[in-house]
Write a structure and sequence with these properties.
Elements lengths: L3 E5 L2 E4 L2 E3 L3 E3 L5 E3 L11 E2 L1 H9 L4 E5 L7 E2 L1 H9 L4 E4 L1 H13 L4 E5 L4
Parallel strand pairs: 6-8, 7-9, 7-10
Antiparallel strand pairs: 1-2, 2-3, 4-5, 4-10
Length: about 120
């Protein structure tokens, strides 16, 4: 399982590799680029296109990092679906989401994440 080594505005380091774009971290440790909505840094709206890839992997917990200031949000339909599906969802500003992700990994949970690296 992947671990997040560090995070700051504009970048994230996962298993020693630095990424300068929003990332999806799958339960098997695979790191993928989030499909950007605006330029390379992605939109402040997190859509089903972004989260659906994570849900397919059937994690025990999904962690969403909403940016350094917590400005990113789940789209309305995505939020409704995730809550209706009764998934274990944690939505936090990215600094806190990174800590929660690593804590869950340390607990042996099958966890996935989407981390927004700006705002």
């Amino acid at each position: 399982m992947a671990k997040i080594n560090s995070f700051n505005f504009g970048f994230i380091v996962v298993d020693g590799k630095q990424y300068v774009y929003d990332v999806l971290i799958l339960p098997d440790g695979t790191v993928r680029e989030r499909e950007p909505g605006k330029g390379r840094l992605g939109s402040h709206t997190i859509t089903w296109n972004n989260v659906g890839k994570i849900v397919k992997e059937q994690p025990e917990v999904i962690v969403i990092g909403t940016g350094t200031s917590g400005l990113a949000r789940l789209s309305g339909d995505t939020e409704v679906y995730l809550h209706q599906a009764n998934l274990n969802l944690v939505v936090l500003p990215s600094f806190q989401a990174v800590e929660k992700f690593n804590q869950l990994v340390d607990e042996g949970k099958r966890v996935a994440a989407l981390i927004h690296i700006t705002c």
